[in-house]
Amino acid sequence: MVKIANIELGDFPLLLAPMEDVSDPPFRKVCKANGADLMYTEFISSEGLIRDAAKSVQKLDIFDYERPIGIQIFGSDIDSMREAAIVSSQAGPDLIDINYGCPVKNVACKGAGAALLRDIPKMVKMTEEIVKATHLPVTVKTRLGWDEDTKFIVETAERLQDIGIKALSIHGRTRVQMYKGEADWTLIAEVKNNPRMQIPIFGNGDIDSPQKALEYKNRYGVDGIMIGRASIGHPWIFNEIKHYMATGEMLAPPTLEERVEVCRQHFTHSLEWKGDKLGIFEMRRHYTNYFRGLPHFKPLRMKLVQSEDIQEIYDTLDEIAQTMAYEVEELDS
């Protein structure tokens, strides 16, 4: 049984990675329904939280059906991060996660996210202050290092454990790599196999199939796997991995009707949480992912992304299920 402090996560938990503009409550709801064991909010700016910025505060919304869930915060100022941890704790999550891995320019170039990989003493001090500031378990998500010359993750993991974090998720790339190339899990395994490490170590990067999940579990010995991009438009990947690990057999891929139904649920949750206007607008980025590979999908996609009428969007989803099913059958026959 893998545990973060007293939070039980099962024998080999699958985590939904925190992803900006993706892992909001509507998306988390469909991932939870499809097997995610632990989820995180989108990362939240510490400065935005302590200044009560509406967008940051809204990201604190969590729901009981999501548990266990962590709120992830990022920032460059230690005092602001400590205050943000206090504010986040009051929102009632199960844990607080610190983002030391985000590589995007407008985060890292402001001294936050992966930028802390260039100043490990500051990272350790910041983490220590956050651990002191909250009664909740604190976890960290980070990368191997800033670049090829600064892959200090083995030593960094020890130092973070020593000041009280309860789990560590490691993306197998440096900041310089961004999301390019292949994730290197050998250093993740080195952290996990370090006899000094007692906390759960979760691996992240390039897991996009049940076969790869099982291969990496066996090869690298991690306590669980965090999945990000592979879940976008494909939230059932969590159940697919669990089924394959339990039986050695692949689940049948979701039918077109099932894809439409999960997309419909996602859209409904989006309306409920964001309101009609924003719910319609922010759902548009997801349609291509849900229906990737469908022949002649473009005209229907254009209807989905251009419509501002809720019923018309539902009707278009029904049309996809009905008309595209014939297209798929024709291809298969």
From TrEMBL:
Say which enzyme class the record assigns: oxidoreductase
State its cofactor. Answer: FMN
Which Gene3D superfamilies does the annotation name?
Answer: Aldolase class I, Putative flavin oxidoreducatase, domain 2
Which PROSITE patterns does the protein's record reference?
Answer: UPF0034 (PS01136)
Q: Which UniProt keywords apply?
A: Flavoprotein, FMN, NADP, Oxidoreductase, RNA-binding, tRNA processing, tRNA-binding
The Enzyme Commission number assigned here is 1.3.1.-
Q: Which residues form the DUS-like FMN-binding domain?
A: 15-320
What is the name listed in the Swiss-Prot or TrEMBL entry for this protein? tRNA-dihydrouridine synthase
Origin organism of this chain? Pontibacter aquaedesilientis
Gene (name only): dusB
